[in-house]
Amino acid sequence: MKRALRAWNRKQILSSVIPSFHLSIVFFFVFITVLPASAALRIDFSGNAAYGNAVLRNLTPEEPERLREDDVFDWAADAEWLVERHYRERGFLDARVAATVTPGETPRDWNVRFDIQEGPRYRYDAVRVIVDGDSAGVVPGGASPRLRSGRPYSEAEVIREGRELRRAFGNAGFVRAEVRQHILLRDSLATASITYTVDRGAAVVFDTLVVRTRRTSGLFTPADSMAGLTRESLLRSFLNYRRGDTLRIGINDQVIEKLLSTGQFNSVRLDDELLDDGLGRSRLVLDVEEKVPGKLGGSIYYETQYGFGVSAQTSHSNLAGTLQEGRLGAGLAQRRQTANIGYGSPLLFGSLLRFDNDLRVE
C-alpha cells in the first residue's frame, strides 16, 4: 500500500512538472521565432596596422535601425570621418579612410568596407615658447613644455600644453595673457615643430570687488530674474584679495569651483574690468545666477505592509542666504507614521566636502 502510494505521488509530481516544462519550451520557441531578425551590417577594415579591428569598430556610431540605402550611406560617411579623425589626433596626419558600401539582397548581406592608408606617424621636432617676441622668454615658475622631441605627435597634448602655459602666466598675475600655437609640418621627415607665442599683456592689479546676484524662477527668461538670496558678505568671503594684489587665475578658478559645488548656482563668473583711473587697476566682478532654492513634493502610495498612505516633503537649499540646506518630511499610512528632519552643509571647513545629517522618527 505504501509502495503504491509513493508511486502515485511520483506520478502526480511528474504529471504536474512535465506539462509546465513543455509549456516553457513551447513558449520559448514561439518567442524566438516571432521576433524579427536583427539587421546587422558586415563591417571590414583593411590597411590598418596601428590599431586593431576591435578598436576601430568601437569608433563607429551605432548602426542604423533600418538598413535603408540613405541611412547606411550616411552612417558610413560618419564612421569614415570618425576613424580618420582618430588617426589624425594621434599623429597620423596623412591618414586617409575611404568607406565603400555594397548593398545586398537582405539586410545581412550589406557590407561596409573601410580602406585605410595610415601613412607615417609624425613626431615632435623642436618645441619653443616665445614670450612677447623674445625667443628666450621665461615661463613663470620655471615650467618648461612637456612636449619632447622624438615623441609621437598628439593633438590633445598640443592643446593641453597651450592651456598650461596660459595658466602659468595667469597664476603670475597675467590673467589676460594670450597663447597661440603654430605648427610647422615637414612631410619628408614626418615631424612637427611647435611654437607657442605668448602675449602677456599687463599684470592685472585688484582694486575693488563687485558682487552681482540674480535668481531665476525657472518659469521666465533671465530678463525677468529676481534678486539673489545669498548674502553678499558670504560671497565676498570667498575672495581674499586686497587692493594692490595681482589677480591669480588659480585662485579665481577655486572660487568658481567651490561655489558651483554647493549645487545652488546655475552659473558663476569672475570677470575683470579695467578702471579709467590711469593706475592700471581693475575691478573684479563676481556674477552668480542662483537656482530656485525651495522644493515641495508629495505623493499618495500603497504598500502591502502598511496600507494606503500619503507623504509630503519640503526643502530649502539656501536658508537665510547662508547656502545651508534644511529638509522636512512626513508620511501617514494606515499602519505607520513617519517624520524626518535633515540638515546639509556644503564646503565643510572651507573644502569641497559636504556634511549631511538626517533624523527619522517612526
In short, what is this structure?
The chain is built from 6 helices and 15 strands. The strands form 4 sheets. Strands 11-12-13-14-15 form a 5-stranded antiparallel beta sheet, with no helix packed on it. Strands 8-7-10-9 form a 4-stranded mixed beta sheet. With 362 residues, it is of the alpha+beta class.
Please provide a written account of the structure.
By secondary structure, the chain is of the alpha+beta class. It has helices at 2-34, 53-59, 69-89, 155-170, 232-236, 249-261, and strands at 42-46, 96-102, 111-117, 123-131, 178-186, 191-199, 205-215, 226-227, 265-274, 281-290, 294-303, 307-316, 325-333, 337-345, 355-361. The strands form 4 sheets. Strands 11-12-13-14-15 form a 5-stranded antiparallel β-sheet, with no helix packed on it. A 4-stranded mixed β-sheet has the order 8-7-10-9.
Provide a count of the helices.
6
Name the structural class.
alpha+beta
Distance between the termini: 58 Å
What's the SSE pattern?
HEHHEEEHEEEEHHEEEEEEE
What's the gyration radius in Å? Answer: 33 Å
Number of strands: 15
Mean of residue pLDDT values: 83
Share of helical residues:
25-40%
Main beta-sheet strand count, sense and barrel state:
5 strands, antiparallel
Q: Flag low-confidence runs.
A: 1-38
Q: Numbering strands along the chain, what is their spatial order in the largest sheet?
A: 11-12-13-14-15
The gross shape turns out to be flat
* Beta-strand content bin: 25-35%
